[in-house]
Design a protein that fits this description.
Blueprint: H1 5-13, E1 21-23, E2 30-31, H2 38-45, E3 52-54, E4 59-60, H3 62-72, E5 80-82, H4 95-109, E6 115-117, H5 124-136, E7 145-147, H6 154-165, E8 174-176, H7 183-197, E9 202-204, H8 212-222, E10 230-232, H9 239-249, E11 258-260, H10 267-280, E12 287-289, H11 297-307, H12 313-316, E13 319-321, H13 330-340, E14 344-345, H14 353-357, H15 366-377
Parallel strand pairs: 1-3, 2-4, 3-5, 5-6, 6-7, 7-8, 8-9, 9-10, 10-11, 11-12, 12-13, 13-14
Helix pairs in contact: 2-3, 3-4, 4-5, 5-6, 6-7, 7-8, 8-9, 9-10, 10-11, 11-13
Region (Disordered): 331-395
Protein name: Ran GTPase-activating protein 1
GO molecular function, one term: GTPase activator activity
Length: 395
Amino acid sequence: MSFDLNAISSALNEPNRTVSGVDFSGKSLKLDTENDAQPIVDAINACPDLHYLTLTGNTLGVEAAKAIAKALAKHPELKTARFSDMFTGRMKTEIPPALSALGDGMIEAGARLSHLDLSDNAFGPIGVEGLAKLLQSDVCSQLQELRLNNNGLGITGGRLLAKALSASPRCLRIFVAGRNRLENDGARALAGVFQSMGTLEEISMPQNGIYHVGINALSEALKHNPGLARLNLNDNTIGPKGAAAIATALPKLKNLKSINFGDCLLKSSGARALAQGLRDNSVLLESLDLSHNEIGREACMEVVDALTALPDSTDRLTRVVLAGNSLGGSANKQTMKNKLGPSAELSDGEGSEDEYVSGSEDDSQESSEDSAAEDDQRDASCDTSGGILETTVIS
């Protein structure tokens, strides 16, 4: 792989052009030694205004990380670190010291990050140990966006993350931690951090094995974040109890624009609780996903009526997904489409109307079923595919 330093120099010498960052995303580089990292080090050293560094899609060893960290130590202006999908094929013993080295470089520089992305690195709880010093340092004191999607954190990692984030006051706007098997205990630990922040605008925690106990804790935290605009808890078992808890937070969430509760086993009673909360509090949603939730026809209609109660609904709503639930006959679906307008995404679920309205509404065994399901899911694997790509910006 070659990096044209002459082109950088030329760009720097041209008026009205400055290099704002370094991007090595998607190069599939295997960086083991200091020498392997030299092209990145050279690029960093040649960039006087390193506002972002993107290393997504490469694999980084300890010695290479130390070399890059040494270069980072000269750049206090760094604001964005995109380190997603960066440890493919690495042993877990390599990841913490590599993360620690990068963090130490930014700490030495006195940088103040606003964005940190470490998604798609299956480093588990041991990786959080490598991140703890960075997260607790002044480098992250002004952090606005933290992305830890698909890291295999588990309950222990969730607790360690919460402990690191609670070391000093935070002003996060965006928190993303999907596909991490946080479960109830991890969610409760993070909920305590969210409650103390009060600045969150987006919370995205899909596919974490969270049941109504964890959802209840998150609901309480939401009440202390009135600026929340986007909430994604897709593919957790919110259930009717969790939906009722979320509904109690809606009076405080006047800025909420998007909810994704797809595949959360809400059932009809959970959908009704949400519908009532949305209607009673005049929440001006733009997007709602309640797909595949075993919701019956009448409850689906209550959701539609709640969303369209205000006269501006057709212009405001961009996406309403009720696919995978029981929507009734063609006349009923047409009524929903007429009310929702082009935002409607409708199709029937696999079960019948009767299945969704009768026996499936029984929550009497929910607590014991929650525990058994969590035990079964503790060893779920973490997919390390993906990453974020960004082209180097020269402005």
